[in-house]
Inverse folding.
């Protein structure tokens, strides 16, 4: 790639002004925060939802209040036949698509010894298969149109920290991290940047129930977590993933939960601290 060419998201000073994005699962939680932050940065946004249109309308209104265009699309991303609708609607509304944020995801809670095949399949289909093929579709569109775009994956500390009551979720996120890296390697030569966000314990409908567990672990010194994350924390990481001079990388947004610690705070007396007689 010559220096005279458009470097797109690999430029030194990446601007999101005038860009357009598809954000899956953006009617609430992390997706909502990312969509709104993109609008603040000057980006038009397609707001995707599955069932809650009222929430999607609120996101659309907020984006328009920020002076950007927004369009709503109902689509279950686990249904691959609906992916073209997302792309076509965004292109019709904005003229092009520069950014894809793979954010939509679900979870199920079940002991790994009792997990059903049905739950496992829907987790893998929604969290892994869907973003894999949506990325393929959008990437091929970008290549055909000569767009040096950016693709961002909302990933999780669960891609490396195992939870035996959320096995399928952890497996899907681990696979998704590799999916991100594989696409990053393939698309770099096309000038398309691909990065992920390593989200920690975030105060959303999906993970709020787990916050007390992490707070207790933090008090005991097993993890370091000053506070639970907010969706806006992940939104800022998503912007960093678009602007960073790198591809195939995880942007940390884990609130310290991935910092290895062994603080034995309950051990107030240690033999090594006693004077030797």
């Amino acid at each position: 790639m010559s220096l005279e060419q458009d470097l797109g998201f690999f430029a030194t000073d990446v601007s999101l002004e005038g860009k357009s994005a598809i954000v899956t699962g953006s009617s609430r939680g992390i997706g909502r925060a990312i969509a709104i932050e993109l609008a603040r940065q000057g980006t038009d946004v397609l707001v995707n939802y599955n069932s809650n249109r009222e929430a999607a309308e609120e996101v659309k209104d907020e984006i328009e209040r920020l002076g950007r265009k927004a369009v709503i699309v109902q689509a279950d991303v686990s249904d691959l036949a609906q992916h073209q609708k997302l792309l076509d609607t965004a292109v019709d509304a904005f003229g092009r698509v520069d950014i894809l944020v793979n954010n939509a995801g679900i979870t199920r809670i079940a002991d790994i010894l009792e997990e059903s095949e049905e739950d496992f399949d829907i987790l893998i289909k929604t969290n892994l298969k869907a973003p894999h093929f949506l990325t393929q579709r959008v990437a091929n569109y970008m290549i055909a149109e000569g767009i040096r775009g950016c693709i961002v994956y909302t990933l999780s500390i669960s891609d490396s920290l195992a939870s035996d009551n959320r096995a399928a979720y952890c497996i899907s996120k681990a696979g998704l991290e590799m999916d991100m890296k594989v696409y990053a390697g393939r698309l770099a030569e096309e000038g398309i940047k691909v990065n992920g966000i390593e989200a920690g314990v975030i105060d959303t409908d999906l993970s709020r129930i787990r916050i007390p567990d992490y707070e207790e672990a933090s008090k005991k010194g097993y993890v370091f977590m000053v506070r639970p994350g907010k969706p806006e924390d992940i939104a800022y990481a998503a912007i960093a993933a678009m602007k960073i001079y790198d591809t195939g990388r995880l942007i940390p947004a884990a609130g310290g939960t991935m910092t290895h610690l062994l603080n034995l705070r309950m051990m107030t007396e240690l033999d090594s601290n006693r004077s030797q007689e």
About this structure: The radius of gyration is 20 Å.
